[in-house]
């Protein structure tokens, strides 16, 4: 079998396998990033125009592109609809960016830790992943400068707002500093913001791309966390120099994004109804976050350290006595508990043992205490070996 | 700007640019492969389950995979649902196959001519495209054997049923011979069948993959030509050795296919209602094909040669006095007529001048005569230069 060279780097997705194992209804899953089932809005389809069954344009539906551009401008991102490319979820934006930039051994810069599926996709295309550590304020700016002084990454991939998996929100000062360094070293910035709207306080978080003065950029978002992930509607907005390439790559990948989902997204994006729904989501998730925090204090107070996230869907725990948390998966699943080991979120898993990502949005609050209790027991048992 | 090496091979899509130019309502477009607008079925959405808004599996919806597998088995393809991967249109299957197989200079084997977007996608990934010519009966078997004796392609990509652009349907004998050669030389077969159901007679066309005894295979199909392309629902069925790789590639590309479109497809695939709709489509397109044939005889009888297609959406004309038909696009559009030049369907465009692909399904019959008359005039004027 003569596969491509890159297939030797094709990893099985741990997330996918855990989610498969966690399908059993008795499993309490802290593993995924699924929106809470009970918060999926009921949507109407009656008014769907029949002509949307026809082929569409690779760019996406014009009205939706307008609405997405308007939303981004309201966040301070200078752009218009001609810079918006509707994608099959924001995951596809990563695939397009990888195709655009990554050859064997191309350097790219990521946060440590970073989004697992981005890391895997970039590595699959052959990237040499440079990692800059995160602090509670965002990227470690000194480490970023040092990295850029000694390397030439094709792009930096950042999730500055409720980062996955760490939950970190970059401070305004950190955002300014990152933008200045991207400009100084002429590094393309890919800013991924799936969790922006899932915010539990009032702190500001203006996109970093809005602070850039010179360098190229791609900003990505999605309706998956605030409307319906099953629509598979995300988007990227790109600086004018990059857009024509990304458009052609989109066309080669799947011609265009499904128009049914695009139409449904258009019924929401930019409307008061969507704002009201998002506000409900925030209240719902904030309450779940608070309950989860309380349960964590009870069961993990002695075991781990963490910061309470102000948005997003995850807690990120650092064990005080580090062990390889991948080895905890099987015993945890035997106790009907699923979680995400932290190691795969680093390009150097072996050098980063002892973190766990716990989703707080999915498991019903009345089961969280039992689930975390079991998970803590599994960890203690492993640490005692 | 440091893009990947492959971006140097990223071509602007001629189809896309023509379709863009052909958006003006006054343009009579013979260029695209769009289903006729008036034949898009009215679909119902009332019963869509709300839980389909949630994330789905990368493989696709279980019931839809079952229905697709059953349909393939009825065609003679031995498979079960575990071999079915639902994709964002069958275009995505080409992207996944390219990722699986193609490094810089990897040989792949295609028909000459072949589907433009496949050719472009494979070349983008760096493929060295070997071309075996088509005859009216299918692939030139002697040329195929010679090609396989002197080369080692990673796969052969064929469209044996109403081939795009040529309209050729491989004979049963040719299908047997191709299958035997794929087995003999251990070449993976990718069989692409978007047009299988758009058939105007009763002749058989059992898939080539059903005739394979040993070698690996991927069979692709779509609902885009018979239901609604805007759903972006296609599929691939793969031999068991390939499936796990394609699944991981799908997950990295966009996590999963949109579930709304999958649900709608499931309301049709394998049902009597779908069969009745497809029968209506066949009657409608057959009548359009006949009217187009008559108009072609009137206006192109002296100019070109062609075979009347027994299925699909296209006529494929060979000019008796070959000229570069790409140069005809601008004068044709000036006359409000669009068509597809034949040269880009060959990996060696310069060596294959003087063909045109004409879609017969889109332009209303009462305008076809005028459109073809204008196109013939444009050709004659260019030939007279």
Secondary-structure blueprint:
The structure is a homodimer of 385-residue chains.
Chain A: H1 14-21, E1 28-29, H2 62-74, E2 84-87, H3 89-101, E3 107-112, H4 116-124, E4 128-135, E5 138-139, H5 141-150, E6 155-158, H6 172-185, E7 188-192, E8 217-222, E9 234-238, H7 243-254, H8 259-266, H9 272-300, E10 304-305, E11 314-319, H10 329-334, E12 337-338, E13 340-341, E14 355-359, H11 365-384
Parallel strand pairs in A: 1-12, 3-4, 3-6, 6-7, 7-8
Antiparallel strand pairs in A: 2-9, 4-5, 8-9, 10-11, 11-14, 13-14
GO molecular function, one term (chains A, B): transaminase activity
Protein name (chains A, B): PLP-dependent aminotransferase family protein
Keywords (chains A, B): Aminotransferase, Pyridoxal phosphate, Transferase
In whole angstroms, the N-to-C terminal distance of chain A is 43 Å
Fraction of helical residues of chain A: 25-40%
Query: In oligomeric terms, what are we looking at?
Result: homodimer
Whole-number mean pLDDT of chain A: 95
Class from helix and strand fractions of chain A: alpha/beta
Classify the beta-strand content of chain A into a percent band.
15-25%
Largest interface: A-B, 77 and 77 residues
Strand order of the largest sheet of chain A: 2-9-8-7-6-3-4-5
Number of helices of chain A: 11
Rg calc of chain A: 21 Å
Q: What spatial form of chain A do the alpha-carbon principal axes imply? A: globular
Work out the number of β strands of chain A: 14
H and E order of chain A: HEHEHEHEEHEHEEEHHHEEHEEEH
Largest sheet: number of strands, sense, barrel closure of chain A: 8 strands, mixed
Q: Could you list the spans of chain A in which at least 5 consecutive residues all have pLDDT below 50?
A: none
Keywords (chains A, B): Aminotransferase, Pyridoxal phosphate, Transferase
GO molecular function (chains A, B): transaminase activity
InterPro entries (chains A, B): Aminotransferase_I/II_large, Class-I_PLP-dep_aminotransf, PyrdxlP-dep_Trfase, PyrdxlP-dep_Trfase_major, PyrdxlP-dep_Trfase_small
Cofactor (chains A, B): pyridoxal 5'-phosphate
